[in-house]
Each structure stands twice: as structure tokens, then as C-alpha cells.
């Protein structure tokens, strides 16, 4: 009996203590905001570690609906080498907490309770993070740049001014004529979709400051998205908790301004390529100025191309800018090869026989020359050998054509007399001429033209002055058509 009485006394004492420790909410109009909040958030009726709970008509628990809004103050240009961008923004969360309703407690209050970080610290907050952030922080001080509002119906609004550096995977195949799509992802950290769901605000969920201007890009459009992220035990982005997590994202489409690249890279590279063609107007034997011009333009262009490449990440695919610089490099290198070719021809000592004064014949005779002195030497030896040919039985078969032999005969060093093998060859050659081939030989020889190596070099330079610019124009047409079509 004594034990029962003692137990009842302990229970009565605890009830009286709890009633004394838990302040009443009556007459809220006479309380200050701080006093009202202290009573609303007293541990006897409010646990900041527990999320707000609402129920359906059948008694099941509903998840907390958190509404999100972005206001972008400033957006920095994309940093291509680090694949990131930076924003200064106001991030706002809105949700309903029934435990903070004070309309009935303080009916005369018409304005929400406002506070800063100290008010936020005593309330339950949804744990939401930027999934693609590299760095983020509260702008200014933690006290002044967080605004907390509690309305009469228990609606809580948390506004924070933040600075965030966000990752953006950029596609640079068409650089610098590219468009980039950079997204910002918000995800719930510890509450899955059965506990918390993120929503965009109905009116203007994403707003940019009208004074936001990007120097290198133009903001084309913005769109938002809502999705669910599935996490398992192998995915630790949400800790070690598996489940479906609510996610919000918004994407900005940015188009790069090409004016800077045209003025600083494309036009200078065109001028450098054009400067390399000046060597075509210099004489082929002027090796020093032509070589200096070619190498200086090549080195200048390589320096220009490398300066542009330092601002980009080392990706494995080929960019449009690299195609342009490679094409220009080939044109400059081609002018160097042309100089080496005409200089080699200029230094030849023998004239070249050309069948016709057309490009294909001149090039064919230049690459495999029919030396004029060889044909003269053959004609001279043919006249000498014809006097020793005495009988027709010594003649070779007339069906063989001597013009198939273009090699200059070897001469002996002591007297300049042809060897026995060479003499037999010319005896065979004269045999053909005695049968009536001599007139044909002279007729064919009269149709050929003899050009000096200097004339051929000048002819090649004259052709290069026309062909190189035409080829470069065709390259430009194909390049710019691809850039603005595909």
C-alpha cells in the first residue's frame, strides 16, 4: 500500500512539474516576438530534430513539401579550363510547420515574425545541398545574410544569399562557336521522398537580375526540371542511406560571343597565312629572305595557336578551332615546301625539254627531266656512228623504238669516247634512222620546247601566287559553312 501511494505521489509531482515547465500559449498578444517564439519552440511542444508532420484523413503521414526559388544576382563567365562557373544568388525555401501556427494564440498579430540566423537555428530546417557544387558559402556574414520568416499560419521562409562554384561539363567540339548548357542541382540530403519532396514555386521560380551581363556569353534561355534520384548502398552521395530522393534543377543555355576570337585569333591567322605567300614574289635563288619569311610566319602562327589552346582543357576530341589552326599551318608549311622545291630546280645546270607549254607537261618534265644536252649528245654520236655502219645486216630489228632509252650514256674519263656497249646502242639507233626514221626524229624534236631551270622556277612561283589563295578561299568557305550549318 505504501508503494502505491508513493508511486501516485511521484506521478502527481511530475505532472505538476511538467505543467510548470511548459509555458502556456494563452494571451500571446501581450508577448513580444521573442517570448512568443520561445513558447512556440519550447522543448515540451517542439523538437527541431523532428520534421513537421501532417496527416491525411485516413491518418497516414504526409511528406513535407518544400518550395524553392532562385534569384541570381551575378553569374561569372564559364571557366573552360576548370569546367566550372560561379554564381551569387538568393536561395529561398518555403514550407509549412503546423507547430508554429500562432494565429489563434495571437489573433491581433498581422505581420510575420522576422529574424536572422539565430531564429533559423531554433527551427527545423530541410537539409538540402547543391549536388554539383565545388564550393559554396554564405555571402557576407552568417548573421546578416540569412533571413528567416514565420507567418501566422506556420509558413516558414528561409532566404540565404550564397556564393557557389558549380561544376559544368562543357562540350567544346565547336569551340569557339559553341553553346553550353550548365545546370544547378538541388537535392534532399537526409530525407527521402517519403519524408520530403522538393517543388518549384509556381510563379517565377528562377529569376535573373536585369543587370546581369556576361562578357563572353549571351544568356539565351532558362528551363527548370524536377526529378527523383535513386540512391543505393553503392552510392554514397546521400550518406549510407538508400532510397529515392527528391531533386530540382535548372539549366541555362549560354551562347559564346565570337567577336573576341575573330579579332584576336581568326583575322591574325589569316594575315599570317597571307604573309607567308609573299615569298612567291621573291626570286627562287634568294634563299635567305624566303627561308626567314617562311620560318618566322610558322613560328608566329604556332605561338598564336598555343596561346589560344592554353585556355582550354585537354580533351580527347578535336575542336573546330584546332581544325582551323591545323589548316592554316598546312598552308604555311606548303609555302615552305614550295620554296624548297623551286630553289632545288633553280640550282639545276641543265635545260629541260618540254613537249608542250602546259602545266602537266612542265611538271612531268620537271620531275623526270628529258635533258636537252642528252638528246644533243645522242644526235652527235648518231652522226658519227652512221659513217661506220657498212651493211644492213648489222642493223637491229626496226620494230624497236630507241626513244624508250632516256639515260645519258657513260663516257670514259680519258678521251670522252663511248664504251663498246654504248656504241652498239647507237649503231642500233642509227640503223633505225637509215630506214627513214631520221625525218620523224627531227620532226618530233622540233615540236619540243626547251626551258631553263630559272624559267621553270618562275613559272611555279607564278602558279603558286594564284593556287594558294584560291585553295585558302575554298578552305574558308568549307570551314565557315560547317560552323554555321552544323
From TrEMBL:
InterPro entries: GABAA/Glycine_rcpt (IPR006028), Neur_chan_lig-bd (IPR006202), Neur_chan_lig-bd_sf (IPR036734), Neur_channel (IPR006201), Neuro-gated_channel_TM_sf (IPR036719), Neuro_actylchol_rec (IPR038050), Neurotrans-gated_channel_TM (IPR006029), Neurotransmitter_ion_chnl_CS (IPR018000). One of its GO terms (molecular function) is extracellular ligand-gated monoatomic ion channel activity. Gene3D superfamilies: Neurotransmitter-gated ion-channel ligand-binding domain, Neurotransmitter-gated ion-channel transmembrane domain. The chain crosses the membrane at residues 265-284, 291-311, 323-346, 466-484. GO terms for cellular component: plasma membrane. Residues 1-17 form the signal peptide. Keywords: Cell membrane, Glycoprotein, Ion channel, Ion transport, Ligand-gated ion channel, Membrane, Signal, Transmembrane, Transmembrane helix, Transport. It catalyses: chloride(in) = chloride(out). Residues 267-480 form the Neurotransmitter-gated ion-channel transmembrane domain. It is a multi-pass membrane protein. Its main location: membrane. Pfam families: Neur_chan_LBD, Neur_chan_memb. It is found in: Cell membrane. Belongs to the ligand-gated ion channel (TC 1.A.9) family. This is pH-sensitive chloride channel 2. Residues 33-257 form the Neurotransmitter-gated ion-channel ligand-binding domain. PANTHER family: NEUROTRANSMITTER GATED ION CHANNEL (PTHR18945).
